[in-house]
Write a structure and sequence with these properties.
The complex is a heterodimer.
Chain A lengths: L1 H4 L1 H21 L7 E7 L4 H12 L3 E6 L5 H8 L4 E5 L3 H8 L1 E9 L3 H25 L6 E9 L7 H31 L1 H7 L4 H29 L9 H25 L3 H19 L11 H6 L4 H15 L3 H30 L1
Parallel strand pairs in A: 1-2, 1-3, 4-5
Antiparallel strand pairs in A: 3-4
Helix pairs in contact in A: 7-9, 7-10, 7-11, 7-13, 9-10, 10-11, 10-13, 10-14, 13-14
Chain B lengths: L4 E12 L2 E12 L3 E6 L5 H8 L7 E6 L2 E2 L4 H7 E4 L11 H11 L4 H15 L14 H12 L6 E5 L7 H16 L3 E6 L2 H4 L4 E6 L2 E6 L1 H7 L5 H16 L1
Parallel strand pairs in B: 3-8, 3-9, 6-7, 7-8
Antiparallel strand pairs in B: 1-2, 1-4, 4-5, 9-10
Helix pairs in contact in B: 3-4, 5-6
Classes of the chains: A alpha/beta, B alpha/beta.
């Protein structure tokens, strides 16, 4: 009977397995939908355009761009909405009809290895499909397109390229939010917080005093992660290291303010830990796009995902580390992080004041 | 003890929603006295103490502590007071000496003075042997004595004690009150809440609270003669009975 009295335990008992099944069941999907592609068609003949429209008419791809020169490739990937680029060689149709073979290059964005794999294999399948149809139509002939797959940014399609930014994102939010919320609620529980509040120290001084060590620790963490990833996995930081550090500091600040907010909302250490772990861990792993690309999740998740700070930081880290982009490409994400930090701080000060009155 | 008023409270009201925790309290505390704040659990003692020490804001009424208005000069009030709460309030994972250092630092005492005070304090408490011990491993009585010593480390005008002797054995309680007397003799005003009635006998003046109101305020001797009782305990029981009868 006692267990039914405690509603919170009940929720945890039944709610969590249910939530996990739903989240994993839907989120862990390995198919793609409406992935953006670009085409660089050097031949512009009937067959190449027929092939492009075949790709387009499938549910999997959306043609978002026509490129003119190869110099546009890098920029298109950095802008981030294109997962792959198809390049048809000169006289694609002529060669195919005349020599029975022609080349098409598929360049995928290797900074997201899972998506890159899916996109390339789907593209290949559609091209094959088209060739079978074409061969049937021209009875007796045998024509083949040889797709040549290349991975941009990550030629060997190594998964570390995805894990390093992901791990960094998760570790930082965990250390910052969990540790701050726990340490501040601990003060509350032990009564030391009251003594600090009675003292001439201002609340802001108390919070800064509590938070500064974690800020420093987290910055050290970032350095360790980056150093290890360079040393062990051979992943250098392609973009500006300074920019990456500044963005990380912003993200750490966000994590800390999130922790402060959690601590003002929760009464005990356990509560703070629960909120931080369950409220942050799972969503971070699943909805941030760390393992599963967010774009192809059901709409609920796509809707929820932008609320989660790691979602934006992971983009920033990937862009700077792997794609080597400059601030011009990540200012939007940066702004979102700053905005979120301000929201968390405002909520905490408001609840803090209310408690004092 | 002088007649200078160090705490002045006029018509203090504190409401939590529709619940009135402090109903129109008015009282003064004089410099250097030991002022006992008595009442059953939930009578509103802690609420009043939290307001006086700046942890909580009153709904209405005038309160001045150490000569400063608590609305306008909350920061100045904080410099003049020491505070020790119901729950143990030192850092359990720091050593005795580290705790003293920390609180000295929080109140902005110069380092040299802190070191001096630490030695002095450890000697007077007979704690010298323990100064490197982690607080968590010390018995409750010792910790409470240390917490009190830390609360008056910066020589405040007033020290607020919220049930400082809860759960402490009689001998340590006795020693604790000796510390309170000593602080009082040095000119520190002691404002103490308790529900041990025998402790009330040690105070210069006591006030008895019931259901958010102060129902009696006088010296222990004055209370006893007024209610014709042998001890403050009896006074308290009589008052409690009277207020129960009123309700019925």
């Amino acid at each position: 009977m006692h267990i039914f009295r405690d509603v919170r335990t009940l929720v945890i008992l039944f709610g969590i397995p249910a939530a996990q099944i739903i989240i994993f069941g839907y989120a862990v999907r390995t198919d793609i939908k409406n992935a953006g592609i670009a085409v660089l068609d050097r031949s512009k003949d009937e067959i190449s355009s027929a092939l492009v429209s075949r790709l387009e008419s499938s549910d999997f791809f959306i043609l978002s761009k026509n490129l003119e020169t190869e110099t546009q490739i890098d920029r298109s990937f950095k802008e981030g909405d294109i997962k792959a680029i198809l390049i048809f060689e000169d006289n694609f149709g002529k060669r195919l009809l005349g020599e029975g073979a022609a080349k098409v290059e598929i360049i995928a964005d290797g900074s997201e290895p899972n998506v890159a794999n899916l996109v390339t294999s789907y593209t290949r399948a559609i091209i094959n499909d088209y060739m079978i149809d074409l061969n049937k139509a021209e009875a007796g002939s045998y024509m083949a397109v040889e797709p040549e797959v290349k991975m941009y940014y990550n030629p060997n399609l190594e998964s570390q390229y995805m894990f390093v930014p992901g791990v960094m994102t998760i570790i930082l939010v965990l250390i910052c939010a969990l540790m701050t919320s726990v340490t501040i609620t601990r003060e509350k529980e032990f009564g030391t917080m009251e003594v600090l509040l009675v003292s001439p120290l201002k609340p802001i001084q108390i919070i800064l005093g509590k938070v500064t060590p974690y800020f420093i620790l987290s910055v050290v963490d970032v350095i360790v992660i980056l150093f290890l990833s360079w040393l062990v996995f051979d992943i250098p930081v392609k973009g500006s290291l300074l920019l990456l550090m500044l963005e990380s500091m912003l993200y750490i600040m966000l994590g800390l303010s999130l922790g402060i907010m959690i601590s003002t909302l929760s009464k005990t250490m356990q509560q703070a830990m629960f909120i931080s772990l369950l409220g942050l861990m799972l969503p971070t792993i699943i909805l941030s796009g760390f393992i599963f690309p967010v774009e192809y999740m059901p709409w609920v998740y796509r809707f929820l995902s932008p609320v989660i700070p790691p979602r934006w930081f992971i983009i920033i880290v990937k862009d700077i580390m792997i794609k080597g982009t400059s601030f011009a490409f990540v200012w939007k994400e940066t702004l979102i992080l700053i905005f979120m930090t301000l929201v968390f701080i405002t909520i905490s000060t408001l609840t803090f004041k209310k408690r004092l009155v | 003890m002088t007649s200078e008023k160090i705490i002045e409270v006029k018509n203090l009201v504190k409401k939590f929603g529709s619940f009135v925790a402090n109903d129109n309290l008015s009282f003064d505390v004089h410099r250097g006295e030991i002022f006992g704040f008595l009442g059953a659990n939930g009578a509103g003692k802690t609420t009043a103490l939290r307001i006086l020490s700046g942890l909580s804001k009153p709904t209405s009424g005038d309160v001045s502590v150490a000569g400063y208005d608590i609305y306008r000069h909350a920061e100045k009030v904080k410099r003049q007071i020491g505070y020790m709460c119901q729950k143990f309030s030192l850092y359990e994972d720091l050593t005795v000496a580290e705790n003293i250092m920390l609180y000295g630092g929080i109140y902005g005492l110069p380092k040299k003075l802190i070191v001096e005070k630490t030695t002095e304090l450890l000697e007077s408490l007979d704690f010298t042997a323990y100064h490197k011990r982690i607080i968590g491993g010390l018995p409750l009585g010792m910790r409470q004595k240390l917490a009190f010593a830390v609360a008056i480390l910066h020589d405040p005008d007033i020290v607020f004690l919220d049930e400082p002797t809860g759960g402490v054995d009689p001998i340590t309680r006795r020693q604790f009150w000796e510390m309170i007397y000593k602080a009082s003799a040095e000119g520190i005003t002691v404002f103490v809440t308790t529900h041990y009635m025998d402790e009330a006998e040690y105070c210069d003046r006591v006030s008895i609270m019931s259901e958010g109101r102060i129902v009696a305020i006088d010296s222990p001797a004055g209370l006893k003669s007024k209610y014709q009782s042998r001890s403050v305990q009896d006074v308290f029981v009589k008052i409690a009975r009277a207020s129960n009868n009123n309700r019925v």
